[in-house]
Amino acid sequence: MSLVTTPALATQIPLVDLQAQYRTIKPEIDAAMQRVLDGSQYILGPAVSAFEQAFAAYCQTTEAIGVNSGTSALHLALLAAGVGPGDEVITVPFTFVASVAAIEYAGATPVFVDVEPDLWTMDPSQLEAAITPRTKAIMPVHLYGQPADMDPILAIAQKHGLVVIEDACQSHGSDYRGRRCGSMGLFGCFSFYPGKNLGAYGEGGAVVTSDPGLAKKIRLLRAWGEETRYEHKYRAFNYRMDGLQGAVLGVKLRHLEEWTERRRAHAETYRQHLAGTPAAVPRERDGVRHVYHVYVVCLPDRDAWRARLAEAGVQTGVHYPIPVHLQPAYRDLGYSAGDFPVAERASTQVLSLPIYPELTAAQIETIAAVFRAGGPAA
Q: Distance (Å, rounded) from C-alpha 319 to C-alpha 109?
């Protein structure tokens, strides 16, 4: 996850506090890492295998394949689904750039549809107009911890014979109408970037699926395509997960439900404290469990409010200030300003406030007090 943050100088309330989390689980983490060091299996190995089994069960799938990043997870899922040169993959422009980069890594062309107002996930009503004879897959993004509206997306995909690959890189443990995000499409892809709800102590990612044949293919693709040593079935990649990351993630997964409920409780505290202020709080889709990877409010004068919060010692982030279709690196896709008005408007208004399990009610009250004190120019 890439983010734009206010300077940390004199920050009293950080956007994310990874040190605080480590202190709460230090003995478990240290022991798990020591076991890897003692066994000296630093690439894949038993710690990664144990985590894969536990994470698959957590995601309500039968298979999980650990890789070295969320980007690699998306890339391998696309390849395993048969996406390649000449194909198109429909996704959204309001996401981190890795969602789109992975499509191009597979040799395919990204095609965008706008997001839903206030929810900021793929707008299913725009999907069918974007489908062409070259369309191979749909990649909804469960943004900020909020599930995309999967039932209509899945129905449209089935109608047109398309693959659905869930970008769940920000939504570990989020549910959509009783189903875990990552379990509804052919594949679900996760990032374990350190700041994620389930974060490694470095880079990491995973693909989940309930298709054992495709899981086997991804396991080969992540490790040079070797079925037997030095015999390469596929032209493949070095996308393996480190043993130390598997150990860390195995420990942290045991705490994820408790941490998620704390995030949700913090979101409710924010909602109560920000009532009547200029900050429009997140809307949670009916029938879902939002896991609040980031807590995003909307403010027409976003940048002025960021400065005001920084003066008060509150670090903030913007996820994301430039939609992918307006990024300099992706101008060749042929889109222009105005093509996706909801995404473009959101990019000028969204502001991420601190949220993590160790955040306190007093800290939330301090943040809310800045908004209650008056406008950013006051």
A: 24
Considering the chain, what is the average pLDDT of its residues?
95
369 Cβ partners below 8 Å, 6+ apart?
none
- Residue 304's identity, in one-letter code, is A
**Distance in angstroms (rounded) separating the CA atoms of residues 77 and 217:** 10
Q: Are 91 and 99 in contact (CB under 8 A)?
A: yes
Q: How far apart are CA 123 and CA 120, in angstroms?
A: 8
Pairing mode, strands 187-191 and 179-180:
unpaired
Task: Tell me how far the alpha carbon of residue 97 is from its chain's centroid.
Answer: 11
- Rounded CA-CA distance 370/354 in Å is 13
Angle at 22 between CA 20 and CA 28, to 5 degrees: 145
**CA–CA distance, 136 with 88 (Å, rounded to integer):** 6
Residues 6+ apart with CB under 8 A from 90: 111, 112, 113, 127, 130, 131, 135, 137, 138, 139
To the nearest whole percent, how much of the chain has pLDDT over 90? 95
Per-residue pLDDT tens digits for 180-223: 999 999 999 999 999 999 999 999 999 999 999 999 999 999 99
pTM for the whole structure: 0.94
What is the distance between the terminal CA atoms of the chain, rounded to a whole angstrom? Answer: 33
